[in-house]
Amino acid sequence: MIxxxxxxxxxxxxxxxxxxxxxxxxxxxxxxxxxELYILQNQINKMTVRLREQNSALKKDKLYLADSMxxxxxxxxxxxxxxxxxxxxLSNPGLNADKQSEFVRQAENLLSRMDWxxxxxxxxxxxxxxxxxxxxxxxxxxxxxKKSAEPFAxxxxxxxIRQEIMCTEETTFVGDINWTAEAVGxxxxxxxxxxxxxxxxxxxxxxxxxxxxxxxxxxxxxKEELPHIFERFYKGESQSNENxxxxxxxxxxxxxxxxxxxxxxxxxxxxxxxxxxxxxxxxTPEYDGFVI
Length: 292
Description:
Layout: H1 2-21, H2 35-90, H3 97-129, E1 137-140, H4 141-149, H5 153-158, E2 162-166, E3 172-175, H6 177-194, E4 198-205, E5 210-216, H7 247-256, E6 260-266, E7 274-280
Parallel strand pairs: 2-4
Antiparallel strand pairs: 1-3, 4-5, 5-7, 6-7
């Protein structure tokens, strides 16, 4: 009689498990009160909870992916539309040489911006997917800053922007110089776009962290935009049409993966503009995930 009841209970349990496996999230396994079957039921309950959590996470990932794809499509649509218009103008047989040269330069600029956008989006997706391995190598901050500034040598000269770097040869950090240079470079790019004529980079070091402080003498950030400037695809009203809300978001992602933080603020000096403060913490277990 007891064996018959156990078989019936097992059959009911099997039926409930089958419902769960077919997506019925309302099934709640509560049947046995004692004995080996109770232990089995308890373990199955734990497994069910875990499966539901994983299923919920997968649904969130799908929604996030869908939203990201929509954002990417939106980001690409504007330069592609402009490029299409330029191609239409260039196909006009009556177009004079000066206008033709101007439109070609504009098209090249748009293609360059699209290339940067796609490259940045690809890097963000790799970090999201966890497929990036960040190296941990000891490097001087001066080498890092030099590598970060190299791509901007010509824009700095053309715009007449002075760049002052205050960093000793002895100051070092442990991290991936290529990825970190990408992050710092995105900060420099933002400063170049908004400064009047000066960018300052200062390195500081204490017993807890090492800082890189990058400041410009532009207009700074509107107060209402400051909490959002590192958000992906965020574009404030003060931003130019060339801003996609990608660079600073990618910057924060790269830094946070390496136990580094970044924050932005307006300088307390009324004659100055924005300040970015990057803090590099030691790559040791006691500092892992430590954020100030």
